[in-house]
Amino acid sequence: MLYFLLQHKGCSFALMNLNRVYHLICKEAALEWRNKSLLASMLIYVLGASFIVYYAFQGHIEFQVWSAIYWIIILFSAINILGKSFDKEVKFQYYYIRSVVPPLEMIISKLVYNAILVFIFEVIIFLEMTLFFGIEVENLPVFFLTLFLGGMGFSNLFTLFSTITARTGNVVLLSVLGFPVILPLLLLILRLTGLSDVEVLVDDRGLNIGAVAVLDMITLVLSVVLFPYLWNE
Amino acid sequence: MFEKLSKQVWWKIATAVLLFYTCIYGFIVKAPDLPILEESIRNLFFHVPMWFAMMFLMFLNLIFSIMYLANGTSRYDVYASNTAVAGFLMGCLGIVTGMIWAKVTWGAWWVFAEVKLNAAAAAILVYCAYFVLRSSFDDPELKSKFSAVYSIFAFVMFMVLINVIPRIAGSSLHPGNGGNPGFNSYDLDDNLRKVFYPAILGWIGIGFWISTQLIRISFIQRKLEDID
Amino acid sequence: MKKFIVLYTMLLTMLGNLSAQENNVTEMLTRENKLTSVNVVLLLILSGILIYLVIQDKKIKKLEDRIND
Description:
The structure holds 3 protein chains of 3 kinds. By secondary structure, chain A is mainly alpha-helical. Chain A has helices spanning 2-8, 18-34, 37-56, 63-82, 87-92, 94-100, 103-133, 140-168, 172-195, 202-231. Helix content of chain B is 76%, strand content 0%. Chain B is built from 8 helices and no strands. Chain C has helices at 2-15, 20-68. Chains in contact: A-B, B-C. The A-B interface holds A 1, 4-5, 8, 157, 160-161, 164, 167-168, 170, 173, 176-177, 179-181, 183-184, 187-188, 191, 204, 207-208, 211, 215, 218-219, 222, 226, 229-230, 233 and B 66, 69-70, 119, 122, 125-126, 128-129, 132-133, 136-137, 141-142, 145-146, 148-150, 152-154, 156-157, 160-161, 164-165, 168-170.
């Protein structure tokens, strides 16, 4: 069925040029680096948010609360970062880019770039929050795996939905659409973060990682398949 | 086929008969003597089938959305949006009946420890966002396309919320989870089964009936506005 | 019929010469009574909804016919 939908739009994975995808990612990074205002503002946003939390809790929180706040900060910064991911293209060079880049390469490059960006921000927030609160995560590999999977899931969902906001110019729509849809993923991730602190529930952990990974794969496939419909409109 | 079905009478009569059967025989049938649940077990014929009806209608919504994306004919969009409305209605009813049941058996209208309840509320929220999305476009074609794409995501997340998360979380107050008496123990009770399966069909039927009416009304509206 | 039985047993309880087992019977009968009242309310709601749907069906049919002409 999904394959049919892809074929219907004249896209096929055989036509994909990995070299071009790589160049698109590089272009994206270069543009971001040249104009540092977005990165800098996001950095300040994240710093400010964790500092406010630090003051509000007066320096002490339990791991449970810590992980909840940590993921909420990530959620909001991810919405801010990813919500703008198609602004440039739609505003300035929509028809040019559409004629040069096939939609499949466009979405894959965006997804990879956004996943990396969100992951970097997650690590930054993690460093800050551990510095402030002195939290020690017991099982770091599982924690970082959670970070990676979570960032990927966020980028899959929000990148696709950011086309909707870019095309309508309605910024509020992203959070309205995004929050309910991200909720199952967030619940699973929160659980997984909680589990990375407890050594006992090893079986549970495998099941959780599997569930998050499957959800990531589903959202990835759906974003890739459905993107041409939104882009070529 | 859908058009033809919506004008036929036999399944409407069948729905009415099944629902009357559920409402009458469901109260006469002998309930198994379970502690706490007692007679409230008869809610099984209302609460659970309503969720089934919602799932059925949302599945129709998914199918019509995919058909819209594949064909681009606007009538599929009308089908999709109206089945979502009917499914949303059934979901709300499912939540309300569930809340009444929760008050009787667990002692509170809303329980945090109950994963399924909160997941169901989130699922309702997902479809709320669907209606918000539909109402925020001026261009009808853009609206249909974006909402079709969103509804595919919404269905996947709905399924994850209703069926996957409660299984993984493991601690639910619902029957069959975390040391509570399972549904299997009642399902073995043939008396209940005799009412439960017809009830599912009946509630799916009434949900479908409402959706066909909504679809026909919106086609009349479209005709009056000269869209078709 | 049922109501009379309930009333009768209630009267007996009030008179105070009931054994524990008969008390149980009263409880069961009132429970049964509650069930029937819920049942009646539900049946009323259900028939209301179904009648509404049928009327709506007729109206829609009429409108469709008028538009198609």
